[in-house]
Amino acid sequence: MAISLKLNGKDQTVEAEPGTPLLWVIRDELKMTGTKFGCGVASCGACTVHLNGEPVRSCQTYIEDVEGADITTIEAMSENDIGAAVQQAWIELDVVQCGYCQSGQIMSAVGLLSENPTPSAQEIDDYMWGNACRCATYQRIRAGIQRASEILEA
Questions:
Q1: Judging by beta carbons within 10 Å of its beta carbon (0-12, 13-18, 19+), is residue 94 exposed, middle or buried?
Q2: Residues 47-72 pLDDT 10s
Q3: Total structural domains in the chain?
């Protein structure tokens, strides 16, 4: 089945069987490998992308549900002011340890800051809950989001 969508600002048409997770279309068909497979059941957040501006777990978003949608992956985040601020904060504070979860963490952080540009520590923890980090860098992730908020305010 042919599906038309916009990926990182570019119109795309992909062929995929109904029920195919968006994650596999992004990674295998469109060769955007920044979005990671973590658990396959939408529990870890490694596969987070933005669908029409909202963070979603691409492992549980099916290709037939994204016809005509605007999808943004980590590869395009630096083109977004909030995404660029988050990435700058991540670098400044050396947030990353192994890095596997970080594309999903960044995509969720951008979603949070899009909704709430000055979140409290508790609001960050509440929003980011469900984004697993095997290295347990949660304090650095929280600090990175707070720093990105400061960058955006400046």
A1: exposed
A2: 999 999 999 999 999 999 999 999 99
A3: 2
